[in-house]
Design a protein that fits this description.
This protein is α+β, with helices and mostly antiparallel strands. It has one domain. It has five helices and three strands; from the N terminus they run αααββααβ. The protein is globular and about 35 Å long. The mean pLDDT is about 95.
Amino acid sequence: MKPDLEQDLFANSTIKDKCKYSKVYSQNLYAAMCNNRFFYGENEWTCSWRMSGGIVADLRDCGEDYLDYYCSGMINLDGSVSESVVTDEIRLDLAKIGWIVKPYEK
């Protein structure tokens, strides 16, 4: 079975809890999934901005949908980051479950 970051996020109780209880963490995870590539060994995983927003909304399990996150990096909420920015906390949490984030090559 090919590694799947979405499945791994849902299987990780720490990340799920952080999403459920922190809108900032959720927005930061959404932003990290936008315009980046994720690797588990040699296996690459990517997603669209809409898919990223949907994943985070589902992780929060609070009745939100992808539109609650889509383009949220432009809103400048306290603690929000622009799409494609990977905060240290997000990078570390993903590394703990075996995923490495890399930007698209220009």
